[in-house]
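Notes continue from the previous slide.

Worked example: a multi-chain complex. Inputs as given:
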Amino acid sequence: MHTLTRRIKNPVTLLGLVVLILLGILVAGPLASLVASTIPADGDFTDSAWRDALASPMSENLFWTPLGNSLLVAVATAVLSTALGAFLAWVVVLSNAPFRKLIGLLATIPFALPSFAIALAWSSVFRNDRVGGSPGILAGMGLDVPDWLAWGAVPVTLTLVAHYFSLSFIIIASALAGLGGDLLSAAQLTGASKLRVATSIALPTVAPALLSGFLLAFAEGVSNFAAPALLGLPVRFQTLSTRLYGSISTGDLERGYVLAILLVVVAAVILYLGNRTTGGRSFAVVTGKASRRQTIPLGKAKGVVTALAGLLIFVTTVLPLVVLTLTTFSRRSNRFDDGFTLHYWFGESDPSISHGMAGVFRNDQLIQATGTTIGYGIAVAIGAVLLGLLAAYVIRRSKSKVVNGTISFLSYVPFLIPGIAMGAAFIALFGSASSPLPNLYGTFWILVLAGITASIPFAFQTSKSALGQVSHELEEAAVLAGASTRRRIGSILAPLSARGITGGAMLVFVTTVRDLSLVVLLVTPAIPLLAVETFRYAEEGFTQHANAITLIIALISVIVTILARKLQGQQQPWAQ
Amino acid sequence: MTLLTTHTQTPPVTASAITLEGLGKSFADTEAVADLNLSLPAGSFLVLLGPSGCGKTTTLRMIAGLEDPSRGRITFGEKVVADGDTGSSLPTEKRGIGMVFQSYALWPHMTVRANVEWPLKVGRWDTDRRRTRSEEVLSMLGIDHLADRYPTQLSGGQQQRVAIARTIAPSPSVVLFDEPLSNLDARLRVDTRSELVDVHRASGATSVYVTHDQIEALAMATHIAVLRDGRLEQFGTPDELLTNPKTAFVAGFLGNPAAVLIDGTMQQKQLTVRDQVLAAPLPVKDGTPMTAMYRPDSIGFGTPDGIGLEIMVMEATPAAGRYVITARLGKERISVVSTQRHAVGEQLKLLLPPEPAAVFDADGQRWDTGHLSGGAA
Amino acid sequence: MKNLLKVTSLSLAALLLASCAGTSEADSEIGTVDANEQHPEFADMSHDELVEAAEKEGEVVVYAFTSRIATVAEEFGAAYPQIDIVAHDISSSEQIERLRSEHDAGAETADVAYVSDAPVVWNELLSDGVLQRYVPERVEDELDDQYKDPLLTNRLSTKVLMYNEEANPDGAPVENLWELTEDKWASKVVMVDPTQRGDYLDLLTEMVLRADEMAASYEEHFGEPIELDEGNENAGYQYIADLYANDVILLSSTDDVNEAVGATGQEDAPVGFTSYSDRRDNAEEGWALQVADEAAPGPGIIFPAMLGITAEAENQAAARLLIDFMMGDDSENGGPAYEPFYVAGDYPTRNDIVDPEDALPREEFPAWEITPEDSAGLRDDVNDFILTVE
């Protein structure tokens, strides 16, 4: 037997090849086709979309200003999300604040909410008379809401923060929970104040988690589409993603693609720089729940700290849901003084209300959309986790640096591609006559493939850490028992990593179902998704319908979270 | 803890002789194992002994097939199972090997019985035979009452036994142990040690056992290979190694207590320490550092005002009616067996026999053998 | 050169298609494909036969640029309970993109498209055969030529300047479009972002096309001839630049504009460009929309709302039946089928349907009727211009 033949026969090598091909098609392919379709056939760029975007009288409004806005929103979102997430994590994991368990549970909810949910709630509350018409709740109460609070950078940033601090919280809390209790006790014994222990010891030791939270929030912030689309337009606050959407939806594909590439480049540069400061440490992975160490008594500050944390949770979790729920019952958009109705939920079509649109539970399109959305979420969760697992397994077993390096890189790249740019790339690859790949535009599968691609970084990281929890020796013991690769995976690896993997799949499902940016360009009416329906209704002024669907999405996300937790508990009778 | 009453049902096993020829393994820039040669008779119990990082685990994993050698060959009986020079390698599962891991590597999602039976299932034993065999090995190890528990519900010692049961159930011809006792407390370690020897004998396999604990090695091994920095220092039976260490490292590593090594320098053809001559004249250049080896029980103590090398007592441990006195000699620590207890802190003189048991050169090689083979001078 | 290629390949495609259909002639210069030539089996069907065939298909999918399609769907469902109608409300710009992408992908999604944005539809969808022309025989004689070729038009819609009549009981607060560029109307003019919605782009394009009229109105209002800023080619462009400089407020949908302009209880209501016909919702929505029809040089544009069958339509019979249905019955107001469109501010194309009451009759309404061919050539430039002045 020669080494080479052995390598080829080796199932890991074969798996590696399969993974590389899949990643090539899903990750490298769309990017390449995106770039290819913006290069003029004759090589003359003077009349190209590149020039429009970068060096024409339009560039300032088409690219530069939106770029500045995107960066502003993203950086502000990242800074605030990290700060709030760290604060809450500290309260929940390390302090003895009352209700901290409840706070910890609620703090994970905004992550499961669609980002436009909070934007819609914001608009219901702060909408002012700049756009005329019926005012928001505050303006309705006679308060003067200034433009900067109602529209543009501030509300866009704050709604994104309300959404993504939750992600920072999850990451930082699990890092804090992993800290040795002794480490903090030692610091406390020196007589340092609680604040000092928190800021000088606890936070620096979880610095990689802080940075992870920061960069994730940045990546989400720079590419978010819903918030600036809903809250930016009245003050002409355009970001790269809204410009990109505008270009593509009006048929200026090339211009849209160029903006997409530029958006990827900007995100990549920032994330690369950020990642370098961690010394190449990869992003912390959101793993299951954290075990508690020891608590720091808050003393006099207890009331204040608890109140702050509670307020934060109330404002970001409870309030938006309450506002959204109430508005779905209000007869007229955002008016609570005009009577309440169940029409928007259960009403038959009535030509005098909302142009004859029936309530959401009477709307076949929405019922279909609910089905499609769940199917889409499940397909993506399974697909992404399978691919992530395969990739993680190859990395675990393969000794080839080239293979491992390429897989790691390609599995990371989608993280740099904002959802809306990814959608554009998939249209370029799977929706154009000139592409070598089958034309999938208008099918369910283009959504699933795009969803899988967007979820790869997350699925890969989760799988890697889930597999990492199974020691090599457990697998080697199976090798020694003579088990084949398939058997080893099926009988040892899979059941042991099931918990982590189920958790990963669950989060992939939730992030997929609530996401708008990725699918907004890919969805066709034949394959309606709830997130897109909401956006469309919101855009067309059917506030009650939009809010009702948002609530349905939130409900699905929360139910899945709870179900998955239960399932995880039942799966491991040995871990009692 | 009497185990070996029911092992008659154990299927007959043909143990394999194991031969390592020029075996080497490199990881990136470092050479973990280099030029390892040894030939182990079938049915023997080999201990790979050495401090951490000496390459013993890597060697074990190469024998197991979990690592491929970079150079050299591994042969089981007549069959080459790995050849680092051609890159060919028999897959682990085809080598007929069992292995007990340091962490036990029990599959946490399977009961004790399932852990033991799973390898048999993979080996396509039928259900009845599987059940019979698992009951046999479980009762042999005295853990049949734990069959339906999960590993996390067991104590460390119980887990250890499950790991052993699982390993020997398929009757492998080679059993490998990777520091299996290091996670047990001292008392349990001693108990389990003798059981392992019994298991080895009962299994009829050739065993290879990795440890850094020389007492374990001396207690269990039929053969010991002492490794250091990836190289083989000496391979032989425990007696050979004790009575005839080839290197100063082996001499200082093995034995309870280990041999006393005293560093000196050649002065006027004589090995001298602080003006005291240790041995008969040697044909070695003046100024060369050499080491003299003495058996711990061949050394006596004299009063501080007498002649001899000055020492200070650091510990006195009672052992079998005598005392192991650990003392400081200059910067070195030596252990000497004495009939008398000495108080900690006491200043004494060493009474050395007229000739050391052996002399090692500056490289740690035995001087006489090295000299005879023309290595020194 | 590019166009030449396009034309060549189109002719080839047309030839191919024609040979399949057994006839050989594309009947208009824009290159419309006639649906009945593609499927001649429907050409001679009686209405009853068509219904039977449609019921056999059992479904029809329609993309419509107006939310009124929901009501149409109700009526259609009531009239033909055997046929499931699936109606999607999608803006024209997006429809065009979708129809084209779906056509490229060969995906069967919509059977019928109800779309405005005539310049783009004519230019891109018809010539590429994405949408096909179908004119029910029943109404053929009641339509002027421009409303059945290159595509069937079932009504004319508008994007015109509207104001809040509750806040302005004495009539329109604006008499000349140029007033909107003055301080008084700073941040008080609303419209949908024309870079995202084709009909609003058409509105601004029409102003550029009618730059001379815009220039005349300028002089009329300010008493001096217009002076163009650098880079603004004519009075139309100058108007766009000035409007944006005066902080015109962009919203994302016509309904938002209606709400902004029309909501009752406002003291200082804005004005905005929206559909004249949205007045019909005043009562239910609590609006007070009214048209500023006397705004010089024109209050806005009138444009066709067109119906076509998609090239990939799966339900050919049901598609024809729906189009026939949406053209209304033979009563003077088009009957229940046409009711959603028979509203003040929209203008039926059928000569046998009288203009709805409560709105200015077509001939008295001074809005500009767009010429899709002319607009098509200029739209992209106007779009790019807007990007520079935003």
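Summary box: Residues 279-293, 569-576 of chain A have pLDDT under 50 and may be disordered. Chain A has two domains: 1-36+364-571, 56-288.
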